[in-house]
Amino acid sequence: xxxxxxxxxxxxxxxxxxxxxxxxxxxxxxxxxxxxxxxxxxxxxxxxxxxxxxxxxxxxxxxxxxxxxxxxxxxxxxxxxxxxxxxxxxxxxxxxxxxxxxxxxxxxxxxxxxxxxxxxxxxxxxxxxxxxxxxxxxxxxxxxxxxxxxxxxxxxxxxxxxxxxxxxxxxxxxxxxxxxxxxxxxxxxxxxxxxxxxxxxxxxxxxxxxxxxxxxxxxxxxxxxxxxxxxxxxxxxxxxxxxxxxxxxxxxxxxxxxxxxxxxxxxxxxxxxxxxxxxxxxxxxxxxxxxxxxxxxxxxxxxxxxxxxxxxxxxxxxxxxxxxxxxxxxxxxxxxxxxxxxxxxxxxxxxxxxxxxxxxxxxxxxxxxxxxxxx
Length: 375
Ligand code: PHE
Description:
- The chain folds into two domains: 3-142 and 279-356, 3-Layer(aba) Sandwich (Rossmann fold), CATH 3.40.50.2300; 145-272, Response regulator (Rossmann fold), CATH 3.40.50.2300.
- It has helices at residues 2-23, 39-58, 81-90, 103-116, 129-132, 144-157, 173-188, 207-213, 227-239, 255-261, 281-293, 301-320, 325-333, and strands at residues 26-32, 67-73, 96-98, 120-122, 137-139, 163-169, 192-199, 220-222, 246-248, 269-272, 338-340, 343-345, 357-363, 366-373.
- The longest helix is centred in the first third of the chain and has 22 residues, at 2-23.
- The protein contains 13 helices and 14 strands.
- The protein is α/β, with parallel strands linked by helices and 375 residues long.
- 45% of the residues lie in helices and 18% in strands.
- The protein has a seven-stranded mixed sheet with strand order 7-6-8-9-10-13-14, sandwiched between helices.
């Protein structure tokens, strides 16, 4: 009798356990610019993150539980991300927060995550201040002092530029930071910033700044901004007869750079985090899986970093053996040689990752890999 009972009870108990785990997913919050001015960033990053979560769930999730990704759109607007982070933490009870691409918006959410002791991983915000917000804030990408140094090296050795004009978006912490981190090593290496001009996010007309730049006859123009303004700047610069190389950082990475800029962005350069043209087996598998899921679309750097951010989080949760904030934080801080799509990820004492950068150019209306620069 007892035996029969047991036989009956066990499958029921097992079924209950499975049902309970499905009802008890590991909730991960994501905040992203899915619409608005930097929609390309949020969309790309989100797709990569989603692919990672699906792959994780297909292989059993973590701690015997599936992951549930709860995504909120900040519409690329300033002032939305802190509210969203609060909502995800108090309403949805997320155990970790993924986001954002743009440094300015990561900076808004970071103090909320820190105060709640919820680990936050920015996939691709490169401004150093982001992780300085606190011990719970991480990133899986390189930071702008490195990107700026590599850009300075690129300008001097590849572009052979001695005199550079600088055009910075003063309303973007990313742009202000990258301008500074480019300038220091560039000048130290013997280069000269002959003129500095400013603009703000959402500006459309750059003729005044470009008219001031033109008579200074720079060897190249550095535009550390986001793709919408960068594309318009290239267009208006070419219209004004400025025909020297124009270059930028990872903020340029979006198909819209070419869509908006057209032939004016031909021959421009920017640094970014990865290239889908890499022959590494891991990258090629990622590109294939991504294309299969998203109608043939090729994943860009934000997608690859979004994917890596979710995978690094899952890896830390597995090692921590719990979703408890402080323990996951410690496991994240101990991340070493994690083999990501964007390279090997080791979290340093400042909660950043030191990685190589990739230089991309626009040729015949397409992005083309130029070189990898090691840190
Ligand atoms: N690094 C940029 C920032 O911090 C965002 C970005 C990352 C843009 C990767 C494109 C590609 O704001």
